[in-house]
Amino acid sequence: MRQSRIFPKIANDMFFVQLLWAFQFLGAALAIHIFKIIQGFIQGYEVDSYYNIVFVFSNIFILVVGILSGHSLPKFVKNGVTRKDYFKGTLLSSIGLSAAIPIILICISQLEQLVIKNMDKISFKELDINSMLLEIGDFRTDIVHSIVFSPFVDPQSNLVLAIGVFSLNLFMYYLVGWLISASFCRFANGIGIGFIVIAFIILTLEDVLLRISLDLPISSRFEILASLPLGMTVFCLFVLIFISIWIIRLLTKKVTIKM
Asked: Which superkingdom, per the lineage (predicted)?
């Protein structure tokens, strides 16, 4: 009975704490966006939509949240929480947060559209995120591309798919941040840096597989994978998620906690 009570409480506590961070992030982005709208209204130029702004920067935000979640393990263990309960609670909270952010963002974006739709002097930029491929470069270029220009589905065209893709992407970035943090807690700095490379390989593969699944442009470096059928790409995405979760579980299981 004890096991069934503790990890839901951890999930609930972590979810609401991290959701508060998300509201702060969304609020800061909204404040900047309102300033840009006012500036654009006065000077008569186009501005980025609130949805596009948050979409681009949310990967970095959720990556940091994932890193911070890894650093909370010692605090939980010192308060009598088992590593298994911590792992299960954090995993559940990451799923909830990844689903909540896109829904909240879409609600705010819809409200934005209602407020300013009759303001003739305000117009939004047509930003085709999916076409912004960085063709020249190396592995570092692929990492930058996957972080800044994640696969994008317009919520105006397919709301459910947009939420699903956005949530999946956020969940992967949360897992990668958590994996990086857990690796540094478990090992010395040298090995931890090796896990950073592994983490961003996972992100790059996730980006490519998701693009292929959505029939979006991919970098010429990965054209050999373009012919993969939808069922195979979806299966590989689930394998990536499973591998990431499995590695995190192994790392958090063996972290030494100084009492």
From this structure: Bacteria
For residue 90, being part of any structural domain is answered with: yes
Instruction: State which residues form the domain around 121.
Output: 2-253
Q: What is the pLDDT of residue 35?
A: 87
With respect to residue 88, please indicate whether it lies within any of the assigned structural domains: yes
For the stretch 101-115, pLDDT in tens is 999 999 998 888 777
Domain count for the chain, please give it: 1
CA 115 to chain centre: 28
Spell out the SS3 assignment of 164-224: HHHHHHHHHHHHHHHHHHHHHHHCCHHHHHHHHHHHHHHHHHHHHHHHHHCCCCCCHHHHH
User: pLDDT digit string (tens) for 139-181?
Assistant: 555 556 656 667 888 888 889 999 999 999 999 999 999 999 9
Q: Is residue 258 part of a domain?
A: no
Round to whole Å and give the CA distance between 227 and 154.
Answer: 24
